[in-house]
């Protein structure tokens, strides 16, 4: 049954960023009869989504859904519900551009990787931001084409841990996309848990190998664990208790956790990713396929900055940021040898 967001007279939803995350959510909601307006900076992608339809393919679902999609300068009107799904480095600019289109009592759900809620609150105001965590596998392939590789955890919640009417409404909306979605009073815990996992994914992208091969290799796993420990130590310093998801247990990387817990977690990550059509991380795709800069400064780099404020050393994160930048700038090529420079 479609909620109040469904039907021809429903409140429209604005999805800003129609790539891997925004595209899969926007197409799914539109397919159910929910009014969706998408925005993207890729002109050809906008045209195909609007005229031909956005093709969602992969083992989860296969369909084509026409969804209105325009470039930012072509958008008109105001919206109460906005789903932001742009890369972390584009968050501030997107927030500034969407602000005129946000109604007086509207809010933005940050369906992104990273801690972008902090950036959004500074620009839009604390009351206008809701947190969201996503862990399903998706890739933007070509204009009008998105691979939906596997289902994964989707969690939303208010930054202050409260539950409001809008939280419940948004939860009802997101469950139309992911039936197992969770509404949490500890959304920052999930975001920091993903930051731990995400930082390790950046390291796997150094190799050029699949996520499964990286997490399943004991030699690499021990280095990945050191990265995880730096992130979790920083989360604790921030007063956050990281939450687990899809077999990933971030507390396995806490200072007092036994090594066996870490090893078990790595095997669970390998197993979870082995069931996905998405074999490599989005970071790998940015580097190897789309040849563009990654979110490294806004994920592991940001953690390192926060850790520095707490006096926590982060040698692995610092080195990881440096090596990713080397690949971005053509100074190195992805290989297992580059990965093991993390240990040097």
Number of contiguous helices: 13
The topology string of helices and strands comes to EHEHEEEEHEHEEEEHEHHHHHHHH
Major sheet: 8 strands, mixed
Q: What structural class should be given to the helix and strand makeup? A: alpha/beta
The CATH top-level class label of the largest domain: Alpha Beta
Q: What share of residues is helical?
A: 40-55%
Overall 3D form? globular
What number of domains?
2
Which regions have little confidence, pLDDT < 50, spanning 5+ residues?
1-9
Give the end-to-end Cα distance, rounded to a whole number of Å. Answer: 56 Å
What is the strand arrangement across the widest sheet?
5-2-1-6-7-8-11-12
Name the average pLDDT: 94
Tell me how many strands there are: 12
Percent in strands: 15-25%
Description:
This protein has 2 domains: 173 residues, NAD(P)-binding Rossmann-like Domain (Rossmann fold), CATH 3.40.50; 154 residues, N-(1-d-carboxylethyl)-l-norvaline Dehydrogenase, domain 2, CATH 1.10.1040. The radius of gyration is 19 Å and the shape is globular. The protein has 13 helices and 12 strands. The chain has 344 residues and is of the alpha/beta class. The strands form 2 sheets. Strands 5-2-1-6-7-8-11-12 form an 8-stranded mixed β-sheet, sandwiched between helices.
Q: How does the SSE layout of this entry go?
A:
Blueprint: E1 13-16, H1 20-31, E2 36-39, H2 43-51, E3 54-57, E4 63-65, E5 69-70, E6 79-84, H3 91-98, E7 102-111, H4 116-124, E8 129-134, E9 137-142, E10 145-150, E11 154-158, H5 165-174, E12 182-183, H6 187-204, H7 211-215, H8 218-237, H9 259-274, H10 282-288, H11 300-309, H12 315-328, H13 336-339
Parallel strand pairs: 1-2, 1-6, 2-5, 3-10, 6-7, 7-8, 11-12
Antiparallel strand pairs: 3-4, 8-11, 9-10
Helix pairs in contact: 3-4, 6-8, 8-11, 11-12
């Amino acid at each position: 049954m479609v909620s109040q967001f469904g039907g021809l007279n429903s409140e429209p939803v604005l999805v800003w960023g129609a790539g891997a995350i925004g595209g899969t959510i926007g197409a799914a909601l539109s397919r159910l009869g929910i009014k969706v307006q998408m925005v993207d900076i890729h002109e050809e992608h906008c045209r195909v989504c609007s005229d031909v339809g956005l093709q969602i393919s992969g083992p989860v679902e296969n369909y084509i859904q026409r969804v209105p999609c325009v470039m930012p300068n072509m958008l008109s009107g105001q919206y109460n519900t906005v789903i932001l799904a742009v890369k972390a480095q584009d968050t501030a600019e997107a927030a500034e551009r969407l602000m005129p289109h946000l109604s007086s009592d509207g809010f933005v759900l940050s369906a992104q990787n990273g801690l972008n809620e902090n950036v959004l609150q500074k620009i839009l105001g604390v009351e206008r931001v809701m947190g969201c965590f996503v862990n399903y596998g998706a890739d933007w392939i070509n204009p009008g084409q998105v691979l939906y590789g596997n289902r994964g955890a989707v969690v939303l919640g208010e930054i202050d841990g409260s539950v409001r009417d809008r939280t419940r409404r948004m939860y009802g909306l997101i469950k139309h996309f992911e039936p197992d979605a969770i509404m949490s009073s500890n959304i920052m815990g999930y975001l920091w848990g993903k930051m731990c996992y995400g930082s390790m994914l950046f390291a796997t992208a150094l190799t050029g190998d699949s996520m499964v091969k990286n997490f399943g290799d004991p030699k690499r796993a021990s280095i990945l664990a050191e990265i995880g420990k730096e992130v979790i130590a920083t989360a604790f310093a921030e007063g956050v208790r990281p939450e687990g998801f899809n077999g990933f247990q971030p507390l396995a990387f806490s200072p007092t956790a036994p090594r066996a817990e870490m090893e078990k977690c790595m095997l669970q990550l390998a197993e979870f990713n082995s069931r996905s059509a998405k074999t490599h991380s989005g970071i790998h795709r940015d580097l190897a396929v789309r040849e563009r800069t990654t979110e490294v400064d806004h994920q592991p780099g940001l953690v390192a900055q926060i850790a520095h404020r707490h006096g926590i050393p982060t040698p692995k994160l610092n080195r990881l940021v440096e090596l990713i930048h080397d690949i971005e700038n053509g100074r190195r090529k992805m290989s297992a040898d580059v990965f093991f420079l993390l240990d040097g």
